[in-house]
Design goal:
This protein is an all-alpha fold and about 180 residues long. It contains 9 helices and no strands. The chain has one domain.
Length: about 180
């Protein structure tokens, strides 16, 4: 029996979410496919405290024309670099370098994931993927109105080993930057 090792890309996940009719099913689907990286992308699009240090609108870049599944970087892996593009994330970068790095990031991604990242930057993910609303992502990722996850007792969930999981590190970095 063959094992299916294909992992859905973020653009595929959010496209499927946009086709699901009920909020309950959208939430369940997002929970099924949630990762630290997907939460980072959604948080960076929906959380008004997160400010992208990039020009708004379209980005001039050359789309990666390689067939899907070949010669692409994955947004799931590249998401760890997002702090460079968020206000306060890497103040040592000058504007030109930051924009050049973003273009290079986009050019390595499949065109659908690049468009998704541009929509996240422009805070229009909900327009690109109809039905991906503020309420849906908050419920799916157990976020409060400040886009923070809390356990039932009101504390941040702690991961074993390092101080906290990647999302919490990302949240901490973003909160300390704004």
């Amino acid at each position: 029996m063959a094992i299916d090792t294909y992992t859905l890309g973020f653009a595929e996940i959010l496209t499927k979410v946009s086709k699901i009719k009920s909020k309950k099913e959208k939430v369940a689907f997002l929970r099924k496919y949630q990762t630290d990286a997907l939460r980072m992308i959604c948080k960076a699009s929906f959380d008004p405290k997160i400010i992208w240090e990039l020009p708004e609108g379209d980005v001039p870049y050359n789309q990666n024309d390689a067939p899907e599944g070949t010669e692409h970087t994955l947004l799931a892996h590249e998401s760890r670099k997002l702090y460079h593009f968020i206000k306060g994330g890497n103040p040592a970068l000058n504007r030109n370098k930051r924009e050049m790095m973003f273009v290079q990031l986009l050019e390595g991604l499949h065109k659908d994931e690049a468009e998704l990242l541009i929509a996240a930057k422009n805070k229009t993910l909900h327009q690109k993927y109809k039905g991906l609303s503020d309420n849906v992502v908050k419920e799916a990722f157990d976020w409060d109105d400040n886009y923070k996850r809390f356990d039932v007792d009101g504390t941040y969930p702690q991961a074993p080993g390092m101080a906290a999981d990647k999302e919490l590190f990302f949240e901490f970095r973003l909160e300390s930057m704004t």
